């Protein structure tokens, strides 16, 4: 499927900033490549606050990402095109990337499914996670590996998946049962000495 001229024009407008503002390239490369590790660490930290609210949030985020990945695979069967660096001349490709179907962006699926899940529960700092998701989304265009349309589709699918998981997961008796079993085992090896404030 051909990429629309608007999609290409918007890609060029963002990707060409890598030439105009080279001092920012390292920042966007970090967001494009390394922020996934920060996201994974955040899930571990939230989990080990040992509060039910945070643990259900992490479970919802994982389920949300699973849903988003399935929907993303389905969308990829209907819309298919290679990464811009493989299809367009003079692309500022700042990170290595294999050539496959660029639609939708897996990073957008991941970050919006997880970060929106955070934002729905963590009211104080939730907006920061949404900013992170947006920065990662822009970074994938900046470094030359996705079109804006790939990002927008991933963001939409991730957000819808997060909203669905937020409504469904806490109501599932199976989730509550498995969480209770896990916490009983956890308390045997790591007793709770004092109840502190949740993060």
UniProtKB/TrEMBL annotation:
Keyword Transferase carried by entry: no
One of the record's GO cellular component terms: plasma membrane
Keywords assigned by UniProt, alphabetized: Membrane, Transmembrane, Transmembrane helix
Pfam family, one: PAP2
Statement: the UniProt record of this protein carries the keyword ATP-binding: no
Any GO MF annotation of the entry: undecaprenyl-diphosphatase activity
Ranges annotated as spanning the membrane: 26-49, 56-79, 127-145, 151-169
Domain Phosphatidic acid phosphatase type 2/haloperoxidase: 58-166
CDD domains: PAP2_BcrC_like
Protein name: Undecaprenyl-diphosphatase
């Amino acid at each position: 499927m051909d990429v629309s001229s608007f999609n290409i024009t918007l890609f060029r407008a963002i990707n060409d900033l890598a030439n105009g503002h080279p001092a920012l390239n390292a920042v966007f490369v970090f967001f494009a490549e390394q922020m996934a590790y920060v996201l994974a660490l955040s899930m571990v930290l939230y989990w080990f606050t040992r509060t039910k609210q945070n643990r259900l949030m992490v479970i919802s985020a994982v389920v949300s990402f699973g849903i988003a990945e399935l929907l993303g695979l389905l969308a990829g069967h209907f819309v298919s095109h290679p990464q811009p660096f493989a299809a367009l001349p003079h692309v500022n490709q700042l990170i290595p990337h294999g050539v496959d179907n660029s639609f939708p962006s897996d990073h957008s699926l991941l970050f919006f499914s997880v970060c929106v899940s955070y934002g729905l529960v963590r009211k104080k700092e939730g907006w920061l996670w949404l900013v992170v998701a947006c920065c990662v989304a822009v970074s994938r265009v900046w470094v030359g590996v996705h079109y804006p349309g790939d990002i927008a589709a991933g963001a939409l699918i991730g957000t819808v998946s997060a909203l669905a998981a937020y409504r469904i997961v806490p109501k599932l008796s199976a989730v509550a049962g498995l969480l209770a079993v896990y916490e009983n085992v956890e308390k045997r090896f790591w007793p709770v000495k004092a109840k502190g404030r949740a993060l």
